[in-house]
Amino acid sequence: MSRSAHPAGPRHADVLSEGHYAAPPADLNSLDPKVWAQTVTRDADGAVTVGGVSVARLAEEFGTPAYVLDEADFRARARAWRTAFGQDADVFYAGKAFLSRAVVRWLAEEGLNLDVCSGTELATALSAGMPADRIAFHGNNKSAAEIERAVGAGVGRIVLDSFQEIARVAHIAQSLGRRQRVQIRVTVGVEAHTHEFIATAHEDQKFGIPLAGGQAAEAVRRALKLDGLELIGIHSHIGSQIFDMSGFEVAAHRVVGLLREIRDEHGVELPEIDLGGGLGIAYTSDDDPREPHEIAKALTEIVTRECEAARLRTPRISVEPGRAIVGPTAFTLYEVGTIKPLEGLRTYVSVDGGMSDNIRTALYDAEYSVALVSRTSDAEPLLVRVVGKHCESGDIVVKDAFLPADLAPGDLIAVPATGAYCRSMASNYNHALRPPVVAVGDGAARVIVRRETEDDLLRLDVG
Ligand SMILES: *Cc1c(COP(=O)(O)O)cnc(C)c1O
After folding, report:
1. In 3D, which of 125, 59, 79, 136 has the Cα closest to residue 98?
2. Strand, helix or coil at 332?
């Protein structure tokens, strides 16, 4: 089962010998702008402020744990993506990374489009006023009700993920008297990792229709025949937390190969290509993500080059960054509860949240950094493991990190880069009440998603 089934984790000395952790940062009080939201600074007293609001005030007013989101940073990143891709491309924010009505409004205002993966994400987007034609609907098993809702609302595109779905969406669109714009999601045989990709001839995952064996070409054949569908393009999403563009290069090559086959067989040049999301962010100072303008330039060049070689008109490109927009804009604020030094092993620092507000460490072995934010300290660096309060020994927030040795219960610590896939994957394990999301900017803070209450939970429990 979990990590708890394994023998005790690395000994203190082993961890220290791993190089990565061998040297504590030169200054524990400094905050690396790579991993912290744009407006995060320390004030004269040493306390951290974000959007002009001190973390002490945030903790007092909203409690801990809390996700604190820098609105100016979110808007700046959204705008940077929009600007980088320009008017001849579309940027769809992947709502599953973190979705709330405030975020939807910011995106609408900044000129981005939105990806949703469920009827409820769609409802959230529509209720916040995102125009339906700027919404794309994804998923490998959309229900008939969800498809009806999406078609009925007039979403800009539905991304088809299986043969059954091609027929299903066509049928529903026709019965509603619509012609639904669709893309077909293909798997190109590229599995992207952080610093490598493994090209596999064989596909083994639930998403998409494989190019291999002519399956994607058959899907296109069927979609082109159905009156309820307007096939506008091909979609590919190769993975997540990617730093290396070579996976996109292979994907673009293969997708353009399919576009060429389609032109040759049907005399149709599909007007759009979607390269998905998955662009990496810095969780620790060791990560070096690319800027949106570099990514836009690289992707545009790749697609243009491939299309020229295939003598195709360059299609309109779209991308779907989720993490790369929202991830860096938020941190999780915790209060330290207990500190347990285990002789010869390590020191455990327990916070008032854990795997219920950040499952990524347990789920993906994700790395995070952490800092003392309620004050500065001149104490020696101490290698610690930050853990939550849940009944599971795999309940780890930050595996290995340096915090000042004088850390004490009541101190506030914060884990940066938790904007993506933390609140959206949060759970009620141990009947934890999911933390609020507090947006800060211009010296003010407001709750955009409130903390759950005991009443919220008890209301679901109908006895
Ligand atoms: C998850 C997902 C994204 C967003 O991924 P990020 O890593 O958050 O950028 C985009 N497109 C599709 C189809 C996805 O499944």
Report:
1. 125
2. strand
Reported pTM: 0.94
Position 199 scores a pLDDT of 44
Distance between CA atoms of residues 427 and 434, nearest Å = 7
Average pLDDT of span 268-277: 97
Single out the residue of 220, 221, 245 nearest to residue 233, CA to CA. 220
Q: How do residues 145-194 score in pLDDT, each as one tens digit?
A: 999 999 999 999 999 999 999 999 999 999 999 999 999 999 998 866 64
160 CA distance to ligand 1 centroid (A)?
15
What the chain holds in terms of domains, given with CATH numbers, is 14-70+328-460 (2.40.37.10), 71-322 (3.20.20.10)
Characterize the bridge pairing of strands 190-192 and 444-449: unpaired
Task: Based on the residue annotation, tell me whether 391 is a catalytic residue of this protein.
Answer: yes
Which of 103, 95, 92 lies closest to 121, judged by CA?
95
DSSP state, 440? E
Rounded CA gap, 33 and 42, in Å?
A: 12
Q: Catalytic residue, from 117, 307, 391, 422: name it.
A: 391
Residue 195 reports pLDDT greater than 50: no
CA-closest candidate to residue 68, choices 427, 457, 422, 454: 422
The residue whose CA has the least distance to atom 3 of ligand 1 is 277
Structure tokens, 277 = 């999301």
Residue 407 is which amino acid? L
Ligand 1 cavity residues, CB under 6 Å: 94, 96-97, 115, 138, 237, 240, 276-279, 320-324, 420
**Residue 26 pLDDT class (50, 70, 90 cuts):** confident
Confidence class of residue 22 from pLDDT cuts 50, 70 and 90?
Answer: low
Q: Which of 320, 360, 424 for mutating ligand 1's site (highest number of atoms within 8 Å of CB)?
A: 320
Q: Which of 318, 328, 361 is nearest to 31 (CA)?
A: 328
279 alpha carbon to ligand 1 midpoint, in Å? 9
Q: Judge contact between 437 and 423, C-beta under 8 A.
A: yes
- Across the range 319-339, mean pLDDT stands at 98
